[in-house]
Design a protein that fits this description.
This protein has about 120 residues and is mainly alpha-helical. The protein is about 80% helix and about 0% strand. This is Tetratricopeptide repeat-containing protein.
Amino acid sequence: MKATTEILQLLSEVGYMACFKGDSVRSQAIMEGVDAIAREQSSIKMGVAVAKMYAGDMDGAISIFRDQVLAKEPDHMSAKCFLGIALNLSGEADEARTLFEEVSLRGNSDEKGIADFYLSK
């Protein structure tokens, strides 16, 4: 199936809405469907990983951030920021802190704000 970027973005947004409304089952189904169509796009991988975080699957999220997004784009600050959150939630505070420190220095204003919040804890 050939899907346009706009359709994939719209479906991803629906997946995020389900995620943020607490419907992690539907969110994961939507995001994994989008991922099946657009396998190589980091933004899609990010969405799948965030949905896994909201569903409580930190190991799955960590794996996607590390092995799929950061392996392809090692300087992806949003992936490092979200990986830090997932690691923090998994009890890996030292590794998370290292990522947050890097994001605080090199990320955009949104990423820096999230990293700084976690560094202040």
